[in-house]
Amino acid sequence: MTIAKILSSDSHVVEPPDLWATHLEPKFRERAPRVVQEDDGDWWIVDGQRTNSFQGGAQAGKRFEHHDEVKPAARFAEVRPGAYLPEAHLADNEADGVYGSVLYPTEGLTLYSVPDSDLLTAVFRVYNDWIAEFCRAAPQRLKGIAMINVDDIPEAIKELERTRARGLAGAMITVYPAEEYSYDRPEYEPFWAAAQDLDMPLSLHIATNRPSPGIPLEDNRRTRPALLANADHWVRVSLGHMIFTGVFERYPRLHVGTVEHELSWVPHFLERLDYTYTQRARRDWWYRFRDNMLPSDFFHRSVFLSFQEDQLGIRDRALIGVENLMWGSDYPHTEATFPRSQQILERILAGVPEEERTKITCTNVARLYHFDGA
């Protein structure tokens, strides 16, 4: 059975090779992300260091029938046009049975590991203008997510306001800042307040950790399999910092979500949050919630979860919270469900009541990001 009016809470664009070379302000242009051709593919170079190739836009669907052809690099010429042209993106969505998309970057994810904060802010501003223009082609079906650098909170708030005015539907911040800037610090209070007031949901997307000072960019790009398999560690710590310090009590209309960390870790995480809050030795400075609220109560009220294929998570959806769940295709990345999203959803949602299926595949994300008519 085909599921009607599917919305993807996590799709991607692939940035054009000349995006920053032609649009970044002159003082940063020599260090801007640019593309160089190497023997195995085209690669992004940022501030003199190599970051990412174009495999994430060139291999959608290969894992289903040609897994042996999946490779770590590709040419931009191989990238699907739907990754950088809005009309082609909508056509690919329609072929996959998807009505609309929440859009994240590709190279932009790796840019969060760039140590130079001023360069990062300038690079993000260029991308935000480009994705706003991309979504203008179909604003009710394409919802862009701004990239925000929270190293400088006043500047981050300005960019949050500017991108909201440009029509972007939410913002992504580093999934894990450098330890000395962790999300339990009071400096973030004005930023949480601004995101709430602007109705800008905040995303913690996989692979967007900020480096600690002095760590070269190339060291942060080493994706060892054990670290990748346990990537939810970072989002758990960041969400825990926010919950335990009362962020969601002070800002009840703020929504923060995990993206591409899947779901099955959540029941254990919630149990540990509540156990720590009620049973561990308390310190005088530990924040205490009003009205007998527990950490899991704030999670269920304020945290959304964008997932792709986690059948275990769907099994435990009552513990996680059906209202919190949002499916995403990850189009056009190598791991994407495209072009088999309908079939995969039928498999992982087998036995799920129709009302819950509709929430998970449509209405939860429509409510959060204001997809009219979905």
Can you offer a commentary on this structure?
There is one protein chain. The protein is an alpha/beta fold and 374 residues long. It has a single domain, classed as TIM Barrel (Alpha-Beta Barrel). Helices cover 40% and strands 15% of the residues. It has 18 helices and eleven strands. It has helices at 19-23, 55-58, 62-65, 86-95, 107-111, 117-135, 153-165, 189-198, 217-220, 225-229, 232-244, 247-250, 266-279, 295-302, 311-315, 317-320, 341-348, 354-369; strands at 6-12, 34-38, 41-46, 49-53, 98-104, 142-147, 170-172, 202-205, 256-259, 303-307, 325-327. The strands form two sheets. The chain has an eight-stranded parallel beta sheet with strand order 1-5-6-7-8-9-10-11. Strands 2-3-4 form a three-stranded antiparallel beta sheet. The radius of gyration is 20 Å and the shape is globular. Mean pLDDT is 94; it is low at 217-221.
The N- to C-terminal Cα distance equals 19 Å
Strand content: 5-15%
Helix-strand pattern: EHEEEHHHEHHEHEHEHHHHEHHEHHEHH
> What is the helical fraction, as a range of percent?
40-55%
What is the CATH topology assignment? TIM Barrel
